[in-house]
Amino acid sequence: MRTAHIGGLEVSVIGLGCNNFGRALDAEASAKVVAAALDAGIDFFDTASNYGEGQSESFLGAALGRRREDVVIATKFGVPVPGWEGSGGAASAYVRQSAERSLRELGTDYIDLLMIHFPDPKTPIEITMAAMSELVEAGKVREIGCSNFDPNQLEAASRAAESLGLTLVCDQVHLSMVHRDPLHDGTVEVAHRLGVSVLPYYPLASGLLTGKARRGHVPEGRLQMDRYQHFLTEENFDLVDALDAFAVQRGRSVVQIALGWLIAHEDVPAVTAGATRPQQVRANAAAGDWVPTEEDLTELARLVGV
What CATH number corresponds to the domain at position 53? Predict the structure, then answer.
């Protein structure tokens, strides 16, 4: 597995998104997915305090066990945690409380990458960054980042971090071949100028880019849920057909093409993809071996429309 850097962290270019832990997967099934990831060379795990009804972190920590020192863990705060009254936001006290909870749940004494899950309109970013700075100074957090920040919010967060002698290392955003907003709304452009890494989530468009979904046939899973129906457009199915043909010509899978295209972007060091079965983890990990040629990228740009 190739590696890349997010700030001072070296990670596998394919990471595992742990949002299924505690939701679609129990502790035992989560452990099997984590074991498959480790076996495949994946050492980058992305979770959040609210994932899996608040259980994702504990499931991940238990699954890693003694392997914790071998991996990089990213977690996020800001979204209310089920069962925790008054949780959510990015006020100073909550930043500290949430970090302490994450440390307990993960069974570790440090978090490699701590991110603000969403901007908090009620709390000035300078306040949040000051609290995160305290965690870094205490050795409880190694690197800090944000998630779902637009260009202006990213600029403000970066300035606030810099004023404290810190570096904001990433912005985790919704980005895939069928959801390309960050490439057009200035987010990637601003991140590039600031030296901030862009970390895509939903890189496989909730299953549309796995090669299993076809026009007239949508397999069981997220794509059958109302909140993901917006992916099921004629335009997107046309793209899936074109990507399938592209992949077949090169002896690859659509998954490899979709993830490899993202990693090929200069500002994208790694991609985290979720999984519910070990075989899905292995399929995702295989994308880390594919390096598209300039000809490949030109053709994909034409197909995707960027």
Answer: 3.20.20.100
